[in-house]
From TrEMBL:
Organism, scientific name: Coemansia biformis
Gene3D superfamilies documented for this protein: 3.40.630.30
Subunit note: Homodimer.
Signal peptide: 1-17
Membrane topology: Peripheral membrane protein
Name assigned to this protein: Glucosamine 6-phosphate N-acetyltransferase
Location within or outside the cell: Endomembrane system; Endoplasmic reticulum membrane
One Pfam family hit: Acetyltransf_1
Taxonomic classification: Eukaryota, Fungi, Fungi incertae sedis, Zoopagomycota, Kickxellomycotina
Domain N-acetyltransferase positions: 25-170
Gene this chain is encoded by: GNA1
Length: 170
């Protein structure tokens, strides 16, 4: 059962979070009600999402909330009550580095028509802040070659090589 409508506490975002977005927008944790505010539509601007029902969304939300370590940040256009940007930080507990933590940044997306408002950079900056606050010794992400300049502007540097194996029919 969900203990709160928010995936995580707003306090984790830090005091400067709201000042990073223009008036009429709100930066906050993902909420259970965001399904109806177009969260899935926003994600679909990034990649294939599939047929995610409201029930499936709620089940996944509750599982993430129970497990902890999931920090999905959204920006909502308050006038339209639509999610216009999002990004995720998943915190991995390690045995390396004296049982340190690594932050994995995923699913950075800005909805069509919302480009140029620095929402992508704002989301990445907030996720990096959360990772640092939670004691992550590094934060990493995978991106397309075309996106490298954007992430460099966010303070990240190129490191290593990504490898992938996708499960059949996924």
């Amino acid at each position: 059962m969900v203990h709160s409508n928010s995936l995580f506490s707003c306090a984790v975002l830090g005091a400067a979070a709201q000042s990073a977005v223009p008036d009429g927008y709100e930066l906050r944790p993902l909420e259970l009600t965001d399904f109806r505010k177009g969260y899935i539509d926003c994600l679909a601007n990034l990649t294939v999402v599939g047929d995610v029902t409201e029930q499936l969304f709620a089940e996944s939300f509750e599982e993430m909330q129970r497990a902890g370590g999931y920090f999905v940040v959204v920006i909502e256009d308050l006038a339209s009550q639509r999610i216009v940007a999002t990004g995720t930080l998943v915190v991995e507990q390690k045995f390396l580095r004296m049982c340190g933590r690594v932050g994995h940044i995923e699913d950075i997306v800005v909805a069509e028509g919302q480009e140029g408002k620095r929402f992508g950079k704002t989301i990445v900056t907030r996720l990096l802040h959360i990772a640092e606050t939670l004691g992550c010794y590094k934060s990493i992400l995978d991106c397309a070659e075309d996106n490298v300049p954007f992430y460099e502007k966010c303070g990240l540097t190129r490191k290593a090589v990504q490898m992938a194996l996708y499960a059949p029919n996924k």
